[in-house]
Amino acid sequence: MSTNSTNSSTPALDFGQKWKLDAAPETTPVQIADEYGLFINGDFRAALSGQTMVTINPATEEALAQFAVAGLADVDAAVAAARKALPAWQQLPAVERGKYLYRLARRLQERAREFAILETMDGGKPIKESRDVDIPEAAKHFFYHAGWADKLDYAFPNRQVEPVGVCAQIIPWNFPLLMAAWKIAPALACGNTVVLKPAETTPLTALRLAEVLQEIKLPAGVVNIVTGGGETGAALANHPDVNKVAFTGSTEVGKTLAAAAAGTGKKLTLELGGKSPHIIMEDACLDQAIEGVIQGIYFNQGHVCCAGSRLLVQESILAEVMQRLELRMKTLRVGNPLDKNTDVGAINSAAQLQIIQDYIRVGQEEGAELCTPTQGELPEVGFWQAPCFFKGVQPVHTIAREEIFGPVLSVLSFRTPEEALQRANQSPYGLAAGIWTDKGSKMFSLASRIKAGVVWCNSYNRFDAASPFGGFKQSGFGREGGRHGLRAYLNLKS
Amino acid sequence: MTAASSHSSSADNFKRRRVDRVASDGRAASFTTRSVKNAAKIQGLRWVVSMTDLTTLEGKDSPQTVRALCRKALRPAVGVDGIPAVAAVCVYPAFVALAKECVAGSSVQVASVATSFPSGQAPLALRLEEVRQVVQDGADEVDMVISRGAFLAGDKHRVSDEISAVKTACGAAHLKVILETGELETYDNVRWASDLAIHAGADFIKTSTGKVSLAAIMGVILVMLEAIRDHFLSSGKMIGMKPAGGIRSAKEALHYLIMVKETLGDAWLSPQWFRFGASSLLDDVLRQLRKQELGPYTAHYDVY
């Protein structure tokens, strides 16, 4: 063995500058118009007030496009268009509704690259993720629900199904196109019409989707897309001629919507925040668990409602887990979201970056130890937060209780499975959980007692259109995906 | 340590680690999404050449095929500048002396398979004798096979003791221990066999003989790299890695290097610590290098 094969001090792996990869940016040009209107009754039109907002690229802070801000009258027109389109859409043979969804899914696949680039430019997520996750999953959702369109009688045996009516759907900025797909696909499959409001920081892929709806000649008014901020969303949710409200976003807004919908007869589903526990037992396959933790919290910069943001590690392996987590984070590449080698992109907005930084400050003030092992400088323009984690977090700490919605992980420890369970359930949220153990009995015992809508075992952040997703407690109610997801868009008669 | 001391051996010196196959394969696949372009690609491909153990292990091998192999090892690409010699030639014991003579005075090492390759199914005394013979004939490196039968029967002491005995017989020659992962089947076994070999004295661990259809698989190699990493973190001692069998394209080879870089770090990006056991890989790497240098792809008949 050569002399450099042994090292007298603590051995350290060097993830340095040897073999620096050349930049590999996605360079395919994508057309973006200077200005986008509201998509109402099959056509684009300006807001009646003429009011607009600007959407920017969070990685460069450059303006991408102006878009219309829908006011009350615009929302009214959109809901009216959806109401008018409803009878014909309902009476269309179900198999024909399915065909529209199949067409939509295929067209999304054909234009996948364009959508991926647009999603990355508008939202800051790595092209790797929009290319491999967001867009393919969106297409899958349309394919899946296309199949249900003419089989709804089999979804709920011995019950007669009928569409709910006009659906108001409000979606967040973390998975813009995918969330649009989660909302639109089941609604249309079940024979409803839709008014969708995308988030104000990421309207572009939804508006591009409207172009695809024109391409596939979806009947006018079946899907309407109104852009704008919180006021537009409120106007839509509170519109009296809406039969159902579906919302994905913050718990705070969800509570307001629930209060407003009470007593109106509107159906409501809410998919809200989370502080999902990610549990590593001492008998877990460690390297795979670490990878799961990385995917769980740093995927999409932690802008994931089901992010595994509370890491619970059995005390006997805590030191080892910390060491490996740190090592693994050294190879995360943070930077230009359009670069195919980027693992962690830009924070979605200046406002969200501020929230994240405030939580990091509070975490330090309350006595937790911040670790930021990633290497390299962050870009000077744009909104950036290096992936990081907190050691020595106590259950009472703010960063252990509140949703940060950023690449910030809180690490806590436990000694016994019962303690792990108690810690896991000690949260106002109940969206998701992860369990890593090599022992099946332990896995099932924990999974059945954790109050979370999804429990992943020896994996994390795995999705399928056939698998229902949704929360317990303040993470919301109702499910999306699978047979359960259809339930929210149908009235059942005996 | 000798074969007789089987009651306590290095096989007892570590805790068994478990590996989740699905998640490990998923992680391995993630390395294939890295985009290696331009200067980094050329650098990577040159490393692949310099890390290659150019191999011929056929019943039909003759002195002439070994001479041709050695010539290619010394000067892999005629007419392209800056292409290094390969790391080693890997031959059967009968050709060690000849190979040594052909590469004399160069940096190219001579590696010999030994220990009744590929099955390892011969009495230990004969296998050790074979090792002593190839070392005496001038082999710089010895590629041994473990007793898979003993391993699968749970006789970890025998596996471990045999590796130790071969290590002793190697003297100054480097020992590469072939696990034949295709026959071990599970990732738990791959990890266990890697740890056994490392603790018993392996300088390198190697996936396969190339004679079993399931050879180099990225998920398997990742498990072995993790064993090497953990040993380094606990002892400070570096162990080398050699995937072998089934690696045919330059692109694949670059993905392997990415996996090495992101699992073990910069120090292992060197022929001293990482090797490719391959016979046909080199031709594709050279074609890619020529393309980067000259523009068009070289016809397959134009790579010697």
What's the CATH first level of the largest domain in chain A? Alpha Beta
Segments of chain A where pLDDT lies below 50 for 5+ residues?
Answer: 1-7
Rg of chain A is 23 Å
Global outline of chain A: globular
What is the fourth-level CATH superfamily of the largest domain in chain A? Aldehyde Dehydrogenase, Chain A, domain 1
Across the major sheet of chain A, the strand order is 14-15-16-13-12-18-19
The CATH topology of the largest domain in chain A is Aldehyde Dehydrogenase, Chain A, domain 1
Kindly state the mean pLDDT of chain B as a whole number?
93
> Which architecture name of chain B does CATH use?
Alpha-Beta Barrel
Strand content of chain B: 5-15%
How would you summarize what this structure contains?
With 494 residues, chain A is of the alpha/beta class. In chain A, 38% of the residues lie in helices and 18% in strands.
Layout of helices and strands:
The complex is a heterodimer of chains A (494) and B (304).
Chain A: E1 35-36, E2 38-40, E3 43-45, E4 52-56, E5 63-68, H1 72-91, H2 94-110, H3 112-123, H4 127-148, H5 152-155, E6 160-163, E7 166-170, H6 176-189, E8 193-197, H7 204-215, E9 223-225, H8 230-237, E10 244-248, H9 251-261, E11 267-271, E12 277-280, H10 286-298, E13 310-314, H11 318-329, H12 350-365, E14 369-371, E15 388-391, H13 398-401, E16 408-414, H14 417-425, E17 429-430, E18 432-436, H15 440-447, E19 454-457, E20 472-473, E21 476-477, H16 482-487, E22 490-493
Parallel strand pairs in A: 1-5, 7-8, 7-10, 8-9, 10-11, 12-13, 12-18, 13-16, 15-16, 18-19
Antiparallel strand pairs in A: 2-3, 4-5, 6-22, 11-21, 14-15, 17-20
Chain B: H1 21-31, H2 38-50, E1 52-55, H3 63-74, E2 88-91, H4 96-102, E3 109-113, H5 124-136, E4 141-145, H6 148-152, H7 156-170, E5 174-178, H8 181-184, H9 187-200, E6 204-206, H10 218-235, E7 240-242, H11 250-263, E8 276-278, H12 281-294
Parallel strand pairs in B: 1-2, 1-8, 2-3, 3-4, 4-5, 5-6, 6-7
